[in-house]
Amino acid sequence: MKRKLNPSKLLPAGDSTIPRATISRLALYLRELQQMSRAGQQTVRSQGLGGTLGLDDSQVRRDLGALGISGRPGVGYSVRDLSKAIKKILGTDRTWGVVLIGIGHLGQALIGYRGFAEQGFNLLAAFDVDEGKIGRKVLGLKVLPLERLESTLLGQEVQLAIVAVPASEAQEVVDRLYRAGISGVLNFAPISLRPTGIGHAIVNVDLAMELQRLAFDVVKRAAEEEQ
Amino acid sequence: MKRKLNPSKLLPAGDSTIPRATISRLALYLRELQQMSRAGQQTVRSQGLGGTLGLDDSQVRRDLGALGISGRPGVGYSVRDLSKAIKKILGTDRTWGVVLIGIGHLGQALIGYRGFAEQGFNLLAAFDVDEGKIGRKVLGLKVLPLERLESTLLGQEVQLAIVAVPASEAQEVVDRLYRAGISGVLNFAPISLRPTGIGHAIVNVDLAMELQRLAFDVVKRAAEEEQ
DNA sequence: TGATGTGAAAGCGTTCACAGCG
DNA sequence: CGCTGTGAACGCTTTCACATCA
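ok -> structure tokens follow
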């Protein structure tokens, strides 16, 4: 039987600890706050912040409390202060260097995705093994041969990689990225990859899995309506 | 104070109920099982199924138990039976008709994504408002004008839609899809959309949010290593 | 008055430990 | 003997209810 050595459900952050569940909602809060900020809104109440996200107002207050953020009774929270605090915790109060591996349809789409730069993620290089793609420019970014991965990373500050290669290649590419000094991988290949060592983070996104989740929700709702 | 009328944390499925947390792991199990099946593996133990997913063996047994699936002591579970049972619960034991709205970079990538068809999701039509894209064929699928959405849906069995339009257009498009009879929406616009009524499901995927999650994990691990 | 902040309770989910079965 | 199935314990998360403060 495999047992975890140290479950450690609480995450150290600064001088306090923030519950997992709270962390998972932070990016959601931030997106709402940025939208409010663009609309010129300066303060927000817990109910207003939770509303569109489907969250209870008391849950929002608990989350913000866990971040060490205080609001003003009768008024609410400062949109600006809240955004700053969340960005700091998420690590997006600075910019990140990112490389992309795999310039298929999805890879090309990711190069063109404006949302990354808006949150401080700079796509610095793109790699592929396909001779037909190497040397081509995709939206201003030149596609380099994968062999040049290590030498390219040496010269630049790159912490993250996005992997959009076939599932059969993913594990090898990820291992190679970690060896080359990358700290975190966003994996789009439909295969479960675990970080190989401490200091290595991975986030898996499987688009087909998201459609399955949707299909389940539809079936569930249909069943609920029926009775 | 807004309060939920009926939290209903348990989901009816067949004649039993399945915990939320279990549901969220089902697509993961299915992917592992399909991989094992392709490799010719016929049975799997709870430890083997949980291993690559980072899950405890007892958790796997609890999950499968909640689905009403039994294994054989000393042997394990049937890969085939397990796959079937999970597909049935997820609703992917049949095929789904899907339309795509928004043929930007991401939309084009989604048309080319093979994983959808493999899980029974058939992309039947693609729509955009851009005159430059309408009429073009993208990977064999003709781009139709968004005006033709309702008339096109009338003639076909389409239950799901994938929305890959700018955030500013997303709410309007989603409302329109629901009115046109769509049951579920997979939304890639970076904005929180809630289903407008019962019988309407939505799943939100925000690629920039996933990178934020990754950045957080990297910062956290760095802090952990430090002490 | 209208919001926050927070003990306390209730609800879930995970893990442990081990009986039981093939 | 090896693995499943599952009470029971534990810990996390959410929700309630209300004191508190500007």
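Chain B touches chain A through 83 residues (CB under 8 Å).
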